[in-house]
């Protein structure tokens, strides 16, 4: 499970991202010129009050939403200008997502759920071996044939982490990934994120309300009044 060579030189650059929404006949500016950069193997937590735009920022970085202005560049790819097949290929090969809701398919086993991500990336014959290896790594090797309804919340979230990592993404984006979990499980999940990102040389951005969780990552930024501010 070594890191991808291309991940080692990868950098994320977010430049002057603005996001405006129509609001009561006018405009609501949620993001007001957010900039950040992150290099391979580095981790960052973004904290801030509900409604500050943390999820919106994460979705823009991950190409799930378009900004009103500004740009996101991942390595040589300008994410904000891609569309269609090129954007789908970028998401499948270079981005990993973990959300508060795990979004596992109920009719598929843990192993099948992890392997599904490899299909989008044109996964070859090694897909099953990679998926099994990651499930072992997150402590679920013996549960690979279990269905989501047979797993606890923490176990389902660990399956989602394995799924996000199976294609060796350059950038892992996590939106409130421990929001539904108890504190002890949340801390184990946080440690797992950091360990796996370091092993694979991946960049990691976690959006969270949980300051204890945020403290586990190298950089902490608060999104407040539409801008990022460093947290000591």
Cross-sheet strand order for the largest sheet = 6-7-8-3-9-10
CATH topology: Rossmann fold
Helix/strand/pairing class, anyone? Answer: alpha/beta
CATH architecture annotation name? 3-Layer(aba) Sandwich
Largest sheet: 6 strands, mixed
Unreliable residue runs = 1-6
Shape: globular
Radius of gyration: 17 Å
Mean pLDDT: 86
| Elements, N to C (H/E) | HEEEHEEHEHHHEHEHEE
Fraction of residues in β-strands: 25-35%
Quick one: how many beta strands? 10
Number of helices: 8
For this structure, what is the CATH class?
Answer: Alpha Beta
The percentage helix is: 25-40%
Gap from first CA to last CA: 33 Å
CATH-defined superfamily: P-loop containing nucleotide triphosphate hydrolases
Number of domains: 1
Account of the 3D structure:
The protein is an alpha/beta fold. It has a single domain (38-67, 84-230), classed as Rossmann fold. The protein has eight helices and ten strands. The chain has helices at residues 5-8, 54-61, 84-94, 110-120, 127-137, 153-165, 183-200, 211-214; strands spanning 11-23, 26-39, 43-47, 69-74, 77-78, 95-99, 171-175, 203-207, 219-224, 227-230. The strands form two sheets. It has a six-stranded mixed β-sheet with strand order 6-7-8-3-9-10, sandwiched between helices. The longest helix has 18 residues, at 183-200. The chain starts with a helix and ends with a strand. Residues 1-6 have low confidence and may be disordered.
């Amino acid at each position: 499970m070594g890191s991808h060579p291309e991940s080692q030189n990868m950098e994320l650059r977010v430049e002057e991202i603005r996001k405006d929404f129509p609001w009561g006949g006018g405009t609501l500016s949620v993001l007001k010129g957010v900039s950040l950069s992150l290099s391979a193997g580095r981790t960052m937590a973004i904290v801030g009050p509900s409604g500050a735009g943390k999820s919106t920022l994460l979705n823009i970085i991950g190409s799930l939403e378009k900004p009103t202005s500004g740009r996101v560049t991942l390595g040589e790819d300008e994410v904000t200008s891609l569309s269609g097949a090129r954007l789908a290929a970028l998401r499948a090969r270079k981005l990993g997502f973990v959300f508060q809701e795990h979004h596992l398919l109920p009719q598929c086993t843990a192993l099948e759920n992890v392997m599904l991500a490899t299909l989008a990336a044109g996964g070859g014959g090694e897909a099953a071996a990679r998926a099994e290896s990651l499930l072992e790594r997150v402590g679920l090797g013996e549960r690979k044939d279990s269905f989501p309804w047979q797993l606890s919340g923490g176990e389902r979230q660990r399956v989602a982490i394995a799924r996000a990592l199976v294609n060796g993404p350059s950038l892992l984006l996590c939106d409130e990934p421990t929001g539904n979990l108890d504190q002890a499980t949340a801390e184990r999940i946080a440690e797992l994120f950091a360990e796996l990102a370091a092993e694979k040389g991946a960049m990691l951005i976690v959006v969270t309300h949980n300051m204890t969780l945020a403290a586990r990552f190298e950089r902490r930024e608060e999104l407040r009044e539409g801008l990022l501010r460093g947290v000591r």
